[in-house]
Amino acid sequence: MANNILKGKRGIIFGALDNKSIAWKVAEHAHNEGAKFVLTNAPIALRMGTISELAKETGSEIVPADATSMDDLIKLYKTAIEKLGGKIDFVLHSIGMSVNVRKGKPYYDQNYDWTIRGYEVSGLSFHKTMQAAWQLDALAEWGSVVGLSYIAAQRVFHTYNDMADNKAVLESIARSFGYHYGIRRNVRVNTISQSPTATTAGSGVGGFDGFYRFANDLSPLGNATADECADYCISLFSDYTRKVTMQNLFHDGGFSFTGMSETAMQTYLKVMEDEKK
To answer: Taking the CB of residue 94, how many other CB atoms lie within 10 A of it?
Structure first.
């Protein structure tokens, strides 16, 4: 149920590709809560996705920008401020890519040119997104910046590959930039460590179905959906979380703090029984 908790707020949403994207859901929920925003993605991603449908649905404009390019980001903020009529209250960074994962290169045999490209897109772009805003003083007082992460930044998931390193960098940037932006403008910077989610990007990770079921079996509340993640993002954009910053916030149904669940144990016990037969 919408409560207009973002009424009057202006935002920039990075990364909406199709209706499976968490960024897509965030845009829909932000619109329902009264926010105005621009949608942005890399030009090549805009050609691949269906973001024009989302723009029409939410009454938003699309501003192409490569998040690894400071020039593009500066233009993005200037355009957004002009079109929305003021400084930016919230930013969602929902960007991630690993060429090594796409090409099937294991963690112990990376192509380092691909590694660096993935780091630039998935991690360093978060810093650039905020540095561009800092240079322009583009974020409003008590603004909120949120990046999407995953627990592989803390734990090993065997096929998550160099994306785990990228997410660890993302979370570190949130802490460090959150400190500086908090002092300067009371801007909050956080990351959300989301459950495995059946997005276009997430489903491309090897063994995703297994990841998904394992997390769901282990989590006392089950996996969080993309819509539920969007709700959480909205709460962090709102004025109800003004003193939450520099945090990596687990939104995973309790997976991150569960060692073993009854459901998961029963699965393994059944496998053991079947092996004895």
So the answer is: 26
